[in-house]
Automatic annotation (TrEMBL):
Protein name: Uncharacterized protein
Lineage: Eukaryota, Viridiplantae, Chlorophyta, core chlorophytes, Ulvophyceae
Biological processes annotated in GO: mitochondrial transcription
PANTHER family: DNA-DIRECTED RNA POLYMERASE, MITOCHONDRIAL, DNA-DIRECTED RNA POLYMERASE-RELATED
GO cellular component, one term: mitochondrial DNA-directed RNA polymerase complex
The entry's keywords: Mitochondrion
Gene that specifies this protein: orf182
Organism: Ulva compressa (Green alga)
MF GO annotations: DNA binding; DNA-directed RNA polymerase activity
Domain of life of the native organism: Eukaryota
Length: 182
């Protein structure tokens, strides 16, 4: 977000169920509902907090995009992908037969069964394709916000853990974190 999120506000019952977004009608309820379905447990969606000050202070932290790192990745994207240090170019989106043969050789040394080799090849190709698409999306977002100050919403789950929401945030992998600085 380019505008600080709305503060979390405690109700008279000591709970907080609105805040963290730009508009007060959007809350962490949908995020909490996802966690409830995932854990198969019923949890009240309200935040039981004695204070929401820490969460509000986290949301007020300003961040910026590391434009030098973005320029580096754009300039050396092909070399990074070829060395498999960072999957950023379209190489893995439509793999050619040479790439599939190289992956096949790698897995054929490990597995004896053709079925296991084939399954491993599909898994690696799918994982690399997914990671390439995510990295490309993160890079596009970083380019878009490169000249702006940005903020991230923060939410607590029912266990009290803090999460940042978004594809480009500080709780992601090293590539994403390298594009951000405070």
């Amino acid at each position: 977000m380019v505008i600080p999120p709305i503060d979390w506000v405690r109700t008279e019952h000591g709970k907080a169920d609105s805040g963290g977004y730009l508009l007060s009608e959007f809350t962490n309820v949908s995020y909490q509902g996802f966690l409830d379905k995932k854990s198969f447990q019923l949890h009240e969606h309200n935040l039981h907090l004695k204070t929401v000050t820490s969460l509000n202070n986290l949301q007020k932290c300003k961040f910026a995009i590391n434009t030098r790192m973005v320029a580096f990745v754009v300039k050396f994207g092909k070399e990074l992908t070829e060395s498999e240090k960072l999957l950023i170019t379209d190489k893995w989106l439509e793999p050619n037969k040479d790439l599939v043969l190289n992956v096949n050789k790698k897995w054929a040394k490990i597995f004896n069964s053709a079925t296991e080799v084939r399954r491993s090849i599909y898994k690696e190709l799918a994982a690399n394709k997914q990671q390439t698409m995510r990295n490309q999306e993160v890079l596009r977002i970083a380019k878009l916000y490169s000249d702006k100050t940005i903020y991230w919403r923060a939410v607590f789950d029912f266990r009290g853990r803090v999460y940042r929401i978004g594809n480009l945030n500080i709780q992601m992998d090293e590539f994403v974190r390298s594009l951000i600085f405070k």
